[in-house]
Write a structure and sequence with these properties.
- The chain has helices at about 20-35, 85-90, 150-160, 180-190, 190-200, 230-240; strands at about 10-20, 35-40, 50-55, 55-65, 75-80, 95-105, 110-115, 120-125, 140-145, 165-170, 175, 210-215, 220-225, 240-250, 255-260, 265-270.
- The chain has about 280 residues and is α+β, with helices and mostly antiparallel strands.
- About 20% of the residues lie in helices and about 40% in strands.
- The strands form two sheets. An eight-stranded mixed sheet has the order 2-3-4-1-5-8-7-6, covered by helices on one side. An eight-stranded mixed sheet has the order 10-11-12-9-13-16-15-14, covered by helices on one side.
- The protein has two domains: about 10-125, 2,3-Dihydroxybiphenyl 1,2-Dioxygenase, domain 1 (Roll); about 140-270, Roll (2,3-Dihydroxybiphenyl 1,2-Dioxygenase, domain 1).
- It is built from six helices and 16 strands.
Length: about 280
Amino acid sequence: MTKRNDYRAGVPCFVDTGRVDSATARDFYGGLLGWDFENVSPGGDAPPYHMAKLGGLTVAGIGTQPEQDWDPVWNTYVSVPDADATATAVADAGGQVLMAPFDIGPAGRMAVFADPQGAEFCVWQAGQTAGAEVVNDVGAVVFNTLHTTDLPAAVEFYGTVFGWAMEAEGEQSWMIRLPGYHEDQDELVPGFSKGMEEMGAPEGFADVVAAVVTDGPARWEVTFAVQSADHSAARVRELGGTVVSEPQDLPWVRETTVRDPDGAQFVLSQFVPPES
């Protein structure tokens, strides 16, 4: 595993979820993805917040929260240099500020927003913590996908807020690119851009930071990498979750959409490189 120490502005950098019964969620994801957990709550009246770990490195977070009248989800965080300035940009671009920027101790500063179609997302201004220490590896986040009901509006909103460019990948799917991101990828994994090109990836694929699918309801969805989509789908059922769509082959991957015991939906993806 390659440890991430920082994230360029505009790159998804962390995911977390809040649960009334976080122990059940920890048992499920520990059994499915091999996560260990560390409670990083400061104690006192603060509810427990567990960092999920792989090989001692942070991959995600699971918090404990009071009962809510909404279904649990996985939250996507995007790295920003200034959460307060981003809040202004979101509002000016027609989005909603659901939770104004606030500090998470010395770790950093966060805020919660919704885009004009209602898809909720978070931002993270790094302090002592940049975000997940492991991504793009088995058991960690490998992709974040925006589901939208208005593609032109999404292009305008996220382009204004994060500087993203969106280009068609298929009839209903688009790639989100952040110009220059390939430089970070090549620094982390030397030869990454060249390898993508040699495998036949679309031009500019090394700059991809997320994806867009034109369906509803508007939301952000998280994809975790697994060794075997079929084995993982069976394991989801064993652990009390639900398989929403059976494993299927797509370009470069074999994927299954599932829900955990609390109903939070996410995708499990097995990388299947093209035959040479």
